[in-house]
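Researcher: Structure prediction, please.
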Amino acid sequence: MKQRRTRRKKYNWEVEIAKGNTNKFYHSTDWDELRERVLTRDKGKCQFFLGNWNDGIHFPKVIKIVDADTVHHIKSIKERPDLALDINNCISLSFEAHEIIEERHRWTWRKKKKPLTKERW
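Model: Predicted structure follows.
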């Protein structure tokens, strides 16, 4: 278990996220507690690569057992701030699966273009 900091103040996260304070939310004790509960519920395994969950667009190529280290909001907190602390709106994913679902994976595998001419200094 993670050593948690003490709760200093009670926030209305729906209002704070609507203002644009998502970074503040992800660094809060409330998020730490929810994240631990979601990882415990899913037994620390990536639900995407187990084939238990997909978003209708992305599907795993191979079913395999992978440890989860990321918790993903199914419905984005920017779209639905009222579901920010709802355990049923969260799913355990591995880093690789999270990158696939957020569509950031295509930039990591991009090949660098060769320069047109060789620099000589």
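Model: The chain has a mean pLDDT of 85.
Researcher: Thanks, that helps.
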